Amino acid sequence: MFRWLLLFILIVPALEIGLLIWAGNWLGPWWVILLIIFTGVLGAWLAKQQGLETIRNVQNSMSMGQVPQDALLDGACILVGGAVLLTPGFITDAIGFLLLIPATRSPLKRLIRKAITKMMNNGSVTIYRR
């Protein structure tokens, strides 16, 4: 897991810089700056809308006496998606929007759920109980 995280931390910024330079040459620097600002504002608005909807889903689940597992995973995806959208760049914006839009978030949640289950079954994640 650490290797993938390190690779992500090293490779993604380099790709982002290259893509921003290429887009700046192709569109012009001012259009790229405006596009970065626009995606940040749109992402913040979308994160707020999805976050409020998730809070309502958690409240509804808890009022019916259910554990809001799916809503909590939604909340984590929205949190990461919103944070990633605040960083300038096209790759991180694409990842952020994938995590914020419900239609694309559902398949990603299935993958995340499988990864968590696999880590728990392999013993990489320990759950402490009192």
Q: What's the helix and strand layout?
A:
Elements: H1 2-27, H2 29-63, H3 69-86, H4 90-100, H5 102-122
Protein name: Membrane protein FxsA
Organism: Halobacillus mangrovi
Pfam families: FxsA
Number of strands: 0
Rg from C-alpha positions?
18 Å
What does the largest sheet look like?
none
Number of helices: 5
Range of strand content: under 5%
Task: Estimate the helix proportion, in percent.
Answer: over 70%
Which structural class best describes the helix and strand composition? mainly alpha
Give structural notes:
This protein has 5 helices and no strands. The protein has about 130 residues and is mainly alpha-helical. It has one domain. Helix 1 crosses helix 2, helix 2 packs parallel to helix 4 and helix 4 crosses helix 5. The two termini are about 30 Å apart.
